[in-house]
Each structure stands twice: as structure tokens, then as C-alpha cells.
Amino acid sequence: MNWPKTHDSDYIIAGPCSAESRKQVLEVSNSLKAIGKVKALRFGVWKPRTRPGAFEGIGSQALSWIQEAKESTGLPVMVEVANVQHVKACLDAKVDMVWLGARTTVNPFYVQEIADALKGNDIPVWIKNPMHPDIGLWQGAIERFHKVGIEKVGAIHRGFYSYDSRPFRNEPKWEIALDLRQKFPEIPILVDPSHIAGKGSLIQEVCQTALDLRMNGLMVEVHPEPKSALSDAQQQITPDHFLKMLDLLVWRMPSTSDESFLKILEKKREAIDSIDSNLVEILAKRFALVEEIGAYKKEHGVTILQLERWFKIMEMRKSQGKSLGLSEELIHELYQIIHKNSIRIQTQVMRKADEK
Length: 356
Ligand code: PEP
Ligand code: MN
Fold this sequence. Notes:
Elements: E1 11-15, H1 22-35, E2 40-43, H2 61-73, E3 77-80, H3 84-92, E4 97-100, H4 102-105, H5 108-118, E5 125-128, H6 135-147, E6 153-157, H7 174-183, E7 189-191, H8 193-197, H9 203-212, E8 217-221, H10 239-248, H11 259-299, H12 307-323, H13 328-355
Parallel strand pairs: 1-2, 1-8, 2-3, 3-4, 4-5, 5-6, 6-7, 7-8
Helix pairs in contact: 1-2, 5-6, 11-13, 12-13
The protein binds phosphoenolpyruvate (PEP) and manganese (II) ion (MN).
Manganese (II) ion (MN) binds next to loops.
């Protein structure tokens, strides 16, 4: 079983959201094999659906079609498991790798049961991030598999549910995948652009970001006829579309030994460092003033927050940012952090003064 190293970026897994029929499984598997770049095939057999009544997967019957696909292509096959019965069925069917879905990673009881059921089997396990941005659950699931002695454990970043994650289905929150990288430098991390994007047309840009952030590969949902797919129809792409997309992706080098490039980069980084240092000094000055104002408000019996002032600051900075080519979103996020901390500092000042 080939296993990606953390400097690889081409570990590509593809396959349909759900195995739907023998014909569909074999057709898509053979097309993916022909592409030549696919390292493993994925299939959903038991589908965790948010609401009842939707297609819940074919169940164990699909495992024999998946075995056929494995024999006919020579590629390893991978299936999602969400409980002990799924694990047993997959082991019996000689499935090569399993993954835990986002709705399973959220539940430490299920994760532990699955880990115990896999104990003693040398089978790679991929763990998707939980539905919501709680890195502790993702980390905990990885640790549970390590603890039962499973060596090949990888992570799959599939984005996070958010009430409004437009334009995507799940917000990428790349910083969380990068945090996971820092916590487990030895673990390969793949990106599932299909569940992040939620739409075929957005998949390529998510893949490109994944490669540019040095993720180790991709897990993409590919269906011979996406329009008639029984699950996730909007986000599945055809093998042809997949092949074209792979050709359009730019696989950049992680670094270079080109001397003149390195010299110029160093100069630019020095300039950034000096700006960052000014930025921190300016922040320190701003927060010292915030503290002074807090004490002054306390002295005069005035509350911490004056809503109109806060709205006005946001408005003024957004319009200044706009005239300098900065996005409204950046200013908004930045000032939310600054404001949150201003309130925290003034609350401390008020409390201290209260204690006197
Ligand atoms: C899937 O991969 O088909 C799936 C159900 O994904 P997730 O767990 O990321 O929602
Ligand atoms: Mn899916």
C-alpha cells in the first residue's frame, strides 16, 4: 500500500460520493484508472444523511462491486466507516483503507469503537475534520487511532459547516488544517474540495489553494453522470472534467535554489518584517490609549461601549480601506479583533477600579 509522505502533493483519491450500482462502480473506476494519476478509489457505501428519507447508500451489497473494481483496476479501494459493523464488513471485503466522515469525528464514542474494531489490522485510516471548527475533536480522533497501534493515520480537510458559508458549501478555514499540520507534522493531510466547494464549478480553485498550501493530495468526488447521482449531485464531476481539471492545476515547487530569486525574496521579507514590527508598536500604542480611555470613562461613570462610536469607527476604516484597495471583509475582521480586545482591556480597567 503506497502511503504519502508529508512533502508529497500528488496523493489523489477519487470516486463517487456513493456506490450506486455495479455498472456505475466499474465504469467510474475504469475511467479513473485510465487517467493514470489516481492512487486510490473512494466509495460511500453507508451514507450519513442529515435528514431521513434521502438515499442512505446501498449497504454491504456494494462491497462486492468495489472488490471487482479493485481487481479490475489494481487500485486500492477506500470506504467510509461509521460504526463497528461497517468496519467488520470492510475487513471481510478486503477494503484497503477506510475513512471516518465529518459526522463521525464529532463523536468520541464512535471514534473509539471504530479504533478498537480496527486494532491489530494494518489498515490505513483517514480522518475527516469534524463538522464544526473544533480542532480538539480532530486531534483526539487521530490520537485514538495512534493509541490502538494504527500507524498509518491521515487527515482529510473537508471544510466546516457554517450557517452562511457562501460561496462554498463548507467554509475552508485553511488555518485549522495548518494548525493540525503543526500539531502532527508527520501526518499527511488531503483536501476534499468536493465537500468544501459543494459545486463542480468551484472545485478547481479549492484544489489550487490546497496545492499552494502544500497539502499532500486531494480526495475528489467523481461520478460518470453527476446529474443523476443519488447523493451530492451538485458537487460531483465527470471523469473528463476531473482529467481536464488536473491538467489545469499548477503544481508549484515548495522552494527553489535560484540564488537571485532567494536574494530578492529575502529583501521583500525584510521589508515585511519591518512593517510588522511597526504594526505591533502601533497596536501597543492604540491599546495603551484604550486603557487610558477606560480609566477616564470609569472616572466619569460612563459605560465601556458607545454603540454609535463603534459603528462610526467601522464605517470610517472601511471607507479608508476601500480607497487604499483593501477589502471590506479584511477591515471588518481586523476591527472585530481590535474591538473585542479593546472591550476586554476596558473591562479589566473597570473591574480593577471597582475593587478599589
Ligand atoms: C463523503 O465523503 O461522501 C461524506 C459523506 O463526506 P463528509 O463526511 O465530509 O460530509
Ligand atoms: Mn459526498
